[in-house]
């Protein structure tokens, strides 16, 4: 069977008796063993248990059972707890950390019948737009091994693009689902904040408590939009320890079933960072497809919340939260640097620096401003169904392992910008907690994948997912990397 088949196609073949889960699993494992030395996506293989699970899935099907993912090979981001496998978040001091129970989403995968092939690589502490760490080494982009696969779900995106399983689960705080999808030419969905329970997707050695993290979500990755929906339906729902005791989830249907019925705002420019020509072309390719199908496509509206303030609020909430979780040394030095900043300097770099020493009072003020933005989005989505915009300003960039990410620079059409400024587009959906679907939107002149994101109304995740599916039919979707793409990299496992 073709290894790049979708989960939906695999499920149909399994139900028809055309293939067994053992055969699908063995094919996936053979491909990993053949190709992953160059890509280094699967950092923790679990092939023995995967084969046993595949045998169990075939036996269950023979008994007449049928579950959404029964017998389908998948991967899991390393940051999810999984009994019997280490959860390190790439931090060397926790290389031997073995969790006591599966994360909620790992349990839901297994309950749905999925066969877990292993875990995929991440950056240190999940805090980078690339995926490399001292324990497992560097994950390469399957399209060009000298470039990053993205982060922090870069291992999962690379695995899907290389054919290592049909589905994967990742997480997103700063574009960690969407950016790797964009860089590797696959699909990903950042759910509405709180839609999918995150318990067990936690940095070691913290216990897996049922907390509601600010900004961060867990979500699906796949090679088609329909597969995203299939996996989201498995993942969605409250934690059984908290809201799940009283609440059941019923997502509203997509607002429209025809491409021509959608009302879409297209944004290709951000006030704080330019959009590279390759990404601009991808955005406009999608915009043209929508217009050609008869959709209402607008380029400007006074209903759009202020993008500059949105990015400032996002950086304040993101960085202050990150410092709270991973405390930094030399706070006194940071405060001295912040005190020396000019009041006129409102750059994102300075915003991030100020946020590193935020007080609780300052965080509450930022959180209050966020609620005004959420209200603005509610008014916006009364008139529009989705936003089409970039995920980052460029396609995948070359590996950059400068130990001080604040010193890194991003090349946008020959001009350098602060590395983390590229998060401005990811924050557009993350700050207010909106759902966003990453879709392939063509190739750069160098042949690299280019993706865009479709941002939808809160808790109406099926709307951007349906739009993604209709656009896939119109402009095409995932394409397998060309044979021989890039040069093999040395794995440092």
What does this molecule look like?
With 493 residues, this protein is of the alpha+beta class. The protein has a domain at 7-262 and 388-475: Amidase signature (AS) domain (Amidase signature (AS) enzymes), CATH 3.90.1300.10. It has 14 helices and 17 strands. The chain has helices spanning 7-15, 21-39, 47-62, 104-111, 154-162, 178-184, 225-235, 277-292, 307-325, 331-339, 348-355, 360-380, 424-430, 462-475; strands at residues 42-45, 73-77, 115-120, 132-133, 137-138, 140-141, 144-148, 167-172, 187-190, 217-222, 263-266, 296-298, 386-390, 409-412, 415-418, 436-443, 449-455. Strands 1-3-2-8-10-9-16-17-13-11-12 form an 11-stranded mixed sheet, with helices on both faces. A two-stranded antiparallel ribbon has the order 4-5. Helix 4 (104-111) links the parallel strand 2 (73-77) and strand 3 (115-120). Mean pLDDT is 95; it is low at 487-493.
Features:
two-stranded antiparallel sheet; 493 residues; eleven-stranded mixed beta sheet; alpha+beta; Amidase signature (AS) enzymes; 17 strands; globular; Amidase_CS
